[in-house]
Amino acid sequence: MTVVGVLxxxxxxxxxxxxxxxxxxxxxxxxxxxxxRLSAVVDGEGVVLRVKQHPRLRELRLTGPGSTLVATxxxxxxxxxxxxxxxxxxxxxxGARQVxxxxxxxxxxxLAPGAGDSxxxxxxxxxxxxxxxxxxxxxxxxxxGAVVLRLGERPRHCAGLFAAVVSPGALRVGDEVRVGxxx
Length: 183
What we know:
This is Molybdenum cofactor sulfurase middle domain-containing protein. It holds the Pfam family MOSC_N. Residues 5-73 form the Molybdenum cofactor sulfurase middle domain. By secondary structure, the chain is mostly beta strands. Helices cover 8% and strands 33% of the residues. The chain contains 3 helices and 14 strands. A hairpin with a 2-residue loop joins strand 2 and strand 3 (32-33).
């Protein structure tokens, strides 16, 4: 089986849990998309804050493209806005990815009943109407532009597949996507 499709969207999230950007190109290194989830908002003890426990993280904004500086909507200091003493932005050793270097989702998977929220996937691909089921793609190699990914497990709470980087390279929206048989 070889499925051919197209890369529809690239999403980068420089700071974990904050809104990201949708560039038309991106570089992929061994650890995922360059510039993705390198920082996180942490408390005074250095513990990463998660949006489930701190929903106001969604209201923070990056101050510029690719920036790791954040602004609160009302201009207040970050600890006051979040209600978390000592809250600050910090680089996270190895990045703030929790499971895998890349999260890939297809347009078909996003539309499937019960798909869950896949808004934070790094790559959105269109595999056409004959797209295989996600479980049929686990273990397959996926090439997008110059990048080769090994498709892995499905996320617990959202659509798509996690992926490991086999061959780093550059991506561009509109690149051809090929998914081979798992092997």
